[in-house]
């Protein structure tokens, strides 16, 4: 059985600045709910962020699906994040060589390094990918989330690959905020934030491989820290009250394991 420290205690163990910020934020705001806002219009995303901002610790974007993306979208999203006190993480799942991801992170239309507090990374190309992020991360005080496991059926991020991803994180704890995973493995330690997608109350999965668990299960039984909820919230008729339900279950599951 895993022994769990509080987010407050883990503030002092974290070395990545975004991890420190997120542990503090979760402890003070009393929420470990992240929402995946996979909507394709700027106005819909901003309206949802405003509606649920008070309930969440993180808002996750897929910026490359936004049809009317512009700089004003980022400016407005950042001001909503500041007002409601949550961090923004861009789920870009970078996976190339260091030199290429540096371009992808710092350049192009989206300029992700200028605004994202965290970004997701697949370590399939090996640990040197992290060197491509170091300059950009430092300037913003941001962090990487390494995909250690995935929620989808038949995922190849398992076993020895997962162990290698944890090792990659530990060797680069300055740059790494945490892991995207389905469970806490002992090697992950207490200095990283563990985030788990594939969460929904009313569904077991979709017809494209997604698999769902409840907040209670992944936090209490599997030892993760943050739940990432997408369609369970943004497709509901009342996203705000649904977000409150996910927040309450995930926070009380967290409190009960302390
Ligand atoms: O293993 C993963 C990793 C991620 S980041 N499985 C996932 O589903 N995700 C992301 O979480 C996915 O890209 C989507 O944005 C979100 C889950 O959305 P939902 O609508 O299925 O809750």
Describe this structure in words.
- By secondary structure, this protein is of the alpha/beta class.
- Helices cover 40% and strands 15% of the residues.
- The protein is built from 11 helices and 8 strands.
- β5 (143-147), α8 and β6 (176-180) form a beta-alpha-beta unit.
- It starts with 6 loop residues before the first helix and ends with a helix.
- 44% of the residues are buried.
- The protein binds 6-sulfanyluridine-5'-phosphate.
What would you say about this model in short?
The protein is α/β, with parallel strands linked by helices and 258 residues long. The chain contains 11 helices and 8 strands. It is globular.
Map the helices and strands:
Layout: H1 7-10, H2 17-29, E1 33-36, H3 42-52, E2 58-61, H4 71-84, E3 87-94, H5 98-106, H6 112-115, E4 118-121, H7 134-140, E5 143-147, H8 159-171, E6 176-180, E7 193-196, H9 215-221, E8 226-229, H10 231-234, H11 239-256
The structure holds 6-sulfanyluridine-5'-phosphate (S5P).
Low-confidence stretches: none
Task: Write down the overall mean pLDDT.
Answer: 98
Strand order of the largest sheet: 1-2-3-4-5-6-7-8
- Along the chain, the helix and strand elements come as HHEHEHEHHEHEHEEHEHH
Q: Give the total of beta strands.
A: 8
Bound molecules: 6-sulfanyluridine-5'-phosphate
- What is the gyration radius calculated from CA atoms? 17 Å
GO molecular function: orotate phosphoribosyltransferase activity; orotidine-5'-phosphate decarboxylase activity
Organism: Cavenderia fasciculata
Keywords: Decarboxylase, Glycosyltransferase, Lyase, Multifunctional enzyme, Pyrimidine biosynthesis, Transferase
Binding site for substrate: 38, 60, 151, 210, 230-231
